[in-house]
Specification:
Structural class: alpha/beta
Largest sheet: 5 strands, mixed
CATH architecture of the largest domain: 3-Layer(aba) Sandwich
CATH superfamily of the largest domain: Periplasmic binding protein-like II
Order of helices and strands: HHHEHEHEHEEEHHEHEHEHEEEEHHHHH
Number of strands: 13
Number of helices: 16
Radius of gyration: 24 Å
Shape: elongated
Number of domains: 2
Length: 342
């Protein structure tokens, strides 16, 4: 058929709706992201890469080209997404990342939720030493016999695997060291987290006492099972950074498996894992906004993948594709809503 103006079609009784139903229009609706490149980031902790890959593949199903994800620490990501140098990531932890709000709020926003309320944080020690020395709290690390048991480098202080510089949890742990006056009693190990935890797990296997910070979902609690191998210990009292103090009530949780007490005063509020995206990008791409608003990944599924990854199955792209196909009915609903938004 020769190119003909819309007016001529209408003149012969062809409706605008019929024209919009042509294959070209249908294709545009099926792939609303066609011609748009999404600059995506992911966190430095590998336990967040699975859901990042899922969202990447979902964006690609909408026709977007995805550049990345580029692996970044928190501060450079939140600065870049606010400036528009990056479009999004799905590795926001809130309220833990509330400290970055003054930065990201200048041009970005939280949109949707990957997983609600299932992301826990806290301190754990091996169960055997907890029972032998009757350790229930960080306060116990002021006792000489406790420090000696966990002193792995001979500096007279207990060694604790903590968070590398730039991670959101580093801020809270550093705050706790001052709030509970633990600087003279605990040495924070801030080397690369996975390597530090691998070293701690090896030490545990040799019967040594270990102290570490971790979060869920994470492969660490699959390798060292709370209640069996290790226990969550409490903080002396809930004491959060000033910008998080309104969340103090959420830092004591009921039913924490493997905690020395119930309810358990973990000292960290339970977190939601949430996407953060550049506002201008969302305004220009309503299909992407609606996808982020609707999509989610169960914490249990993230935990299962993290365990597989720790066992050596590190093909995250294939794991994400498998998850998408196993969730196809729900995924198609998200994609349909996104396409309709365009």
């Amino acid at each position: 058929m020769k190119n003909t103006s819309l007016a001529k079609f209408l003149a012969v009784g062809v409706s605008a709706a019929a024209i919009l139903a042509t294959p070209m229009a249908a294709s545009a609706q099926d792939a609303p992201g066609e011609g748009v490149t999404v600059n995506m980031a992911q966190a430095t902790w590998d336990t967040g890469w699975f859901h990042a890959e899922i969202y990447k593949q979902l964006l690609e199903e909408l026709g977007y080209s995805v550049d990345g994800p580029t692996t970044l620490d928190n501060p450079p990501f939140y600065q870049a997404v606010a400036q528009g140098d990056l479009d999004l990531w799905v590795n926001g932890w809130f309220p833990l990342h509330n400290t970055y709000e003054p930065v990201y709020s200048q041009g970005a926003e939280i949109v949707g939720s990957v997983a609600d309320g299932g992301a826990l944080e806290g301190y754990l020690i091996d169960r055997a030493t907890a029972e032998e020395l009757e350790i229930t709290s960080l306060e116990d690390f002021k006792r000489d016999e406790v420090k000696e048991a966990f002193d792995r480098n001979g500096d007279g202080r207990a060694d604790m695997v903590a968070c590398p510089p730039g991670w959101g949890c580093e801020i809270n742990i550093e705050h706790h060291m001052d709030a509970y006056e633990l600087r003279d009693h605990i040495t924070l190990v801030k080397a690369e987290y996975a390597a530090s935890m691998a070293d701690a797990i090896a030490a545990f296997g040799q019967g040594e006492s270990i102290l570490f910070y971790t979060w869920t979902p994470n492969w660490t609690v699959n390798e060292l099972v709370p209640g069996e191998d290790v226990v969550w210990i409490e903080v002396p009292e809930v004491n959060l950074p000033e910008e998080m103090m309104d969340l103090a009530d959420a830092a004591t949780l009921d039913g924490v498996e493997g905690c020395v007490s119930d309810p358990c005063m973990l000292g960290f509020p339970a977190n939601d894992i949430r996407p953060v995206a550049n506002t201008a990008f969302l305004d220009e791409n309503p299909a992407a906004r609606v996808l982020l608003e609707n999509a989610s990944v169960a914490v249990e599924d993230i935990f299962e993948q993290n365990a597989r990854m720790n066992e050596g199955d590190d093909d995250i792209e294939a794991q994400a594709a498998e998850w998408i196909e196993n969730s196809r009915d729900q995924v198609d609903e998200w994609l349909e809503a996104a396409r309709n938004a365009s």
